[in-house]
């Protein structure tokens, strides 16, 4: 017998609200096998058989059981995703999965399954352009509305309220690398250790240009895995566990770096994607940056994301796992971050 994290009563209440059918009764639960569940992280398929006024029907669902936030002080990812579906989904310029029920503490949520490929289809240039258009539409909808979005305490605030949590985690990660002398790519290079220490010590300078930008709603993990299209070609965006408030180019950087990390080289130059994003914002918001301004912001976004997420990954991944990714990590993250630090941060004592 399959163990589910919710009770029949909790699921029944959710389905009654979802279908607006107070007489609905759940008759059977079975492990399901739908593409949405296979595509999602920390998820299982669920087939629910229910009855309304003597008529039986089924609905395919996805049961998600997100892990608790890795860092104390941050909202539970399940609370964040359920909160977005409840409070903000109707305001989004794209569809999301429909929430059926959720635990108030975030340990589980049940959503209706959407039609999706079992795994992300390899995107071509046109698919990437459409994804960037979708991302720009999301950012345009909430552009400059950080005060309005602050009404939702479960949204992440990486550059403001959550900032010190991430900087502390980065410092702890670097300390772990030094203490255990792993990974060797970082730990055995004094110049690299010095530069990474400099980035953390100058975190305020790293985020200053990003904080000066208008904030918007961020997906937080926008990637090929989390974007599907319905039969009419309209986007459906999945997995909002990292929804946040911040500058939109952080989402764009995540799309580019996650795509390269998961699938290798892009079918279109990174510069073409950033140019398309800038053109979309100029078209709909009349917001524009010079090339020099954008390059500075892109460098600072890369430095911040490395400090916020990637350094902790490097520190916590077992040597065998890191070694399998070492070349990719060096090319995609470490060398660009070192170069960005050289261009943008102040040197101390004439050297790093």
Quick rundown:
By secondary structure, this protein is α+β, with helices and mostly antiparallel strands. The chain is built from 13 helices and 9 strands.
**What Rg do the Cα atoms give?**
22 Å
Strand line-up across the major sheet: 1-2-3-5-4
Low-confidence stretches: none
Q: How many β-strand runs?
A: 9
Mean pLDDT: 95
General shape: globular
Largest sheet: 5 strands, antiparallel
Q: Structural class of the helix and strand makeup? A: alpha+beta
Per DSSP, what share of the residues sits in E-state strands of 2 or more residues?
5-15%
Describe this structure in words.
The protein has 352 residues and is of the alpha+beta class. It has two domains: 105 residues, Phosphorylase Kinase, domain 1 (2-Layer Sandwich), CATH 3.30.200; 220 residues, Alpha-Beta Complex (Aminoglycoside 3'-phosphotransferase, Chain: A, domain 2), CATH 3.90.1200. Helices cover 50% and strands 14% of the residues. The chain has 13 helices and nine strands. The protein has a five-stranded antiparallel beta sheet, with helices on both faces. Strands 6-9 form a two-stranded antiparallel sheet. Helix 4 runs parallel beside helix 11 and helix 6 packs antiparallel against helix 8. The longest helix has 26 residues. The mean pLDDT is 95.
């Amino acid at each position: 017998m399959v163990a589910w994290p919710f009770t029949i009563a909790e699921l029944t209440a959710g389905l009654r609200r979802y279908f607006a059918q107070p007489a609905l009764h759940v008759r059977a639960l079975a492990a399901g096998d739908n593409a949405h569940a296979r595509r999602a992280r920390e998820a299982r398929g669920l087939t629910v058989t229910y009855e309304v006024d003597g008529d039986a029907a089924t609905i395919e669902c996805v049961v998600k059981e997100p892990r608790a936030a890795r860092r104390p002080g941050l909202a539970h990812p399940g609370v964040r995703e359920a909160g977005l579906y409840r409070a903000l989904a109707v305001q989004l310029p794209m569809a999301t999965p429909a929430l059926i029920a959720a635990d108030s503490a975030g340990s589980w949520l049940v959503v209706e399954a959407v039609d999706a490929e079992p795994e992300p289809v390899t995107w071509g240039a046109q698919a990437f352009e459409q994804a960037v258009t979708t991302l720009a539409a999301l950012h345009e909808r909430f552009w400059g509305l950080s005060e309005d979005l602050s009404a939702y305490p479960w949204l992440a605030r990486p550059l403001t309220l959550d900032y010190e949590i991430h900087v502390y985690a980065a410092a702890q990660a670097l300390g772990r690398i030094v203490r255990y002398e792993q990974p060797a790519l970082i730990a055995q290079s004094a110049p690299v250790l010095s530069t990474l220490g400099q980035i953390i010590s100058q975190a305020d300078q790293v985020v200053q240009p990003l904080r000066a930008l208008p904030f918007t709603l961020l997906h937080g993990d926008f990637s090929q895995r989390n974007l599907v299209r319905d039969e009419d070609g309209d986007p459906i965006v999945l997995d909002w566990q990292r929804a946040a408030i911040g500058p939109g180019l952080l989402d764009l950087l995540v799309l580019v770096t996650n795509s390269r990390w998961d699938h290798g080289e892009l079918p279109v130059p990174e510069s073409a994607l950033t140019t398309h994003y800038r053109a979309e914002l100029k078209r709909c918001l009349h917001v524009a940056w010079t090339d020099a301004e954008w390059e500075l912001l892109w460098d600072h976004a890369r430095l911040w994301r490395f400090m916020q997420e990637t350094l902790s990954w490097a520190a916590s991944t077992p040597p065998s796992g890191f070694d399998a990714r070492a070349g990719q990590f060096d090319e995609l993250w470490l060398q660009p971050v070192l170069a960005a630090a050289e261009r943008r941060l102040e040197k101390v004592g004439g050297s790093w």
